[in-house]
Amino acid sequence: MISEKQVIDFLKPKDSDYINRLISSLNNDFSNDESLDMDTCPICGSIHIKKNGRDHCGNQRYLYKDCHRTFCDKTNTLLYRSHLSMEQWKNFINFEISKIKLEDEAHFLGVSVTTCFYMRHKLYHVATEIINQQILSGEIEIDAQYASIICAVDDADYMIMNITGLGSESFDKYKANEKYFEDVKELISDSKQCIKQFANYLGAKSNQIPTSPIGKKYLTADGKSLGSNEMMKEIRELITLSRGIGTRYMQGYLNFNILRKQMKYKYKRNELAEKILE
Questions:
Q1: 89-125, pLDDT tens digit by residue?
Q2: H or E segment at 107?
Q3: Residue 95 CB: number of other CB atoms within 10 A?
Q4: Biggest distance spanned by C-alpha atoms of the chain
């Protein structure tokens, strides 16, 4: 039998995290078959879950009994399969919000530029999943930048900046994004025929800014402006800053730009990184 002195001598050189994990593991019976109050399995939707030990970092693992897959608390989060700490991720997200270059992020975090590159696109993938769930409704301002990026914002500040392919602006490109529009009352836009056609397709009113042979007009007949012009300005700046980035990554940059804007509306600057991690 192990004596109390032997246990103390063993634990003395250990750090507090190791001891806390050890105490936690003693207080949990990982072999019990009792279902837990957890989310459903991301693979099969099972709600029959039991604890299944801990990984090498001390994170609780769970077994979904229907598909026999295991997951940990960090599965489907930014921290999944990441060796960086929560604090490093918070700092990284703050760097991204502040539009700091990859080289500088790597310097301040003490990691390689390649690591920061993969962190960036992991973060942008999460942003894309969040933005893709947004549905625009009601009164919507809509336009396109470079004929291939559709910009739209509704009166609840839900937004899209979607790359729709090469070529000129067309009804088909707008129609390809119809899943983001629901219960649309009015589309505010410039005088392009393809947007008017899209409004008719959605069963919405088309409120267009008329063209003028004398000079530019910025208001519709009833005095409404096209605020999505600000979004297009941001796209031009983003493309300038991200020169050299592959086209396949650009949608992630656009979606993170939307997430950054929307989070700033809701939270204080020092809360943004933590809220995104949630």
A1: 889 999 999 988 889 999 999 999 999 998 898 899 8
A2: helix 102-109
A3: 21
A4: 96
User: Tokens representing 183?
Assistant: 């219960």
Distance of CA 36 to the CA centre of its chain: 28
Least reliable range by pLDDT among 29-43, 159-173, 189-203: 29-43
**Which of 123, 145, 138 minimizes the C-alpha distance to 231?**
145
Residues 6+ apart with CB under 8 A from 33: 50
Report d(CA 250, CA 147) in Å as an integer: 15
71, β-bridge pairs: 62
Distance CA 170, CA 164 (A): 10
142: DSSP letter: E
Measured CA to CA in angstroms, residue 128 lies from 84, 132, 134, 219, 259 at distances of 22, 6, 10, 32, 9
* 19 three-state secondary structure: helix
Calculate what percentage of the chain has a pLDDT beyond 90.
30
First to last CA, the chain: 45
The 10 Å Cβ neighbour count of residue 181 is: 22
Nearest to 37 by CA among 48, 28, 29, 27: 48
- Bridge partners (DSSP) of residue 174 are none
What is the model's pTM?
A: 0.69
Structure token pair of residue 99: 């539009």
Task: Retrieve residue 189's tokens.
Answer: 């836009």
What pLDDT is recorded for position 208?
Answer: 92
CB 166 within 8 A of CB 146: no
Residue 92 vs residues 15, 61, 110, 142, 257: alpha-carbon distances, Å: 26, 26, 11, 33, 15
